[in-house]
Design brief:
single chain, 247 residues, 7 strands, 16% strand, binds NADPH dihydro-nicotinamide-adenine-dinucleotide phosphate, Sc_DH/Rdtase_CS, SDR family oxidoreductase
Amino acid sequence: MAVKDKVVMITGASSGIGEATATLLASKGAKLVLGARREDKLQKLRDAITKDGGEAVYQITDVTKVEDNQKLVELAKTEFGKVDVIFLNAGLMPNSPLSELKSNEWNQMVDVNLKGVLNGLEAVLPEFKEQKSGHVITTSSVAGLKAYPGGAVYGATKWAVRDLMEVLRMESAQEGTNIRTATIYPAAIKTELLETITDEETAEGTNAMYKQYQIGPDRVANVVAFAIDQPEDTNVNEFTIGPTTQP
Ligand code: NDP
């Protein structure tokens, strides 16, 4: 029921929200399986967790590749015997006006933010079905709730993630597989995310906005821990979280 001893897979674990969540959950006794593309960052995080007495393993993972997601699930099973929770968190936000036609970046966002989540589900759902339990947590965004200029494709991917989670929850209730789902909608969180914006004007505006109000990724980690910590018969569907001062 609690976080302790749960096996938690995290994608996008190499920085920001994923890193903060891994650190927090490890301190609460969870066993972490970390995935992202930057090995140096994953190694550093794994070392920091184990130095503090926690348990973590990692694997280089590109969420756009189904087989990488499958290997991460295999790693969890080999090292810890099961997967209790998958936190599908990897994402990027190269926002720009649609008229700029940055179609490579549109495709990147669809591939990572949306298909990355689908690939994670493809890898883990057979395990959850067999176990008749499991917990899927995703990082959507307030952009998945409210449209804004410059955020069309990013917002579309985050809306889509919300829908996936809701339907997964409903279907699993119908099918009796007991899979819990939680969708998190963060607002301005201080991470590396803004570095993915290449459109100069959008980057300038977004950086200026984030400078006014942003909170640390540890606050999102608290929410993930809360969702996991609930009794197995209790599903916390959604959380919106952001700075108190952000309108
Ligand atoms: P970061 O940029 O710090 O983290 C993004 C993570 O995603 C990194 O660990 C990166 O790792 C990983 N990632 C990117 N592409 C891939 C890929 N192809 N395969 C595997 N991992 C990948 O930003 P955040 O921590 O803020 O972002 C985490 C999530 O939170 C994202 O989904 C983002 O959309 C969402 N979010 C963030 C908000 C914010 O204000 N910061 C607000 C709302 C939502 P690597 O490069 O090593 O692969």
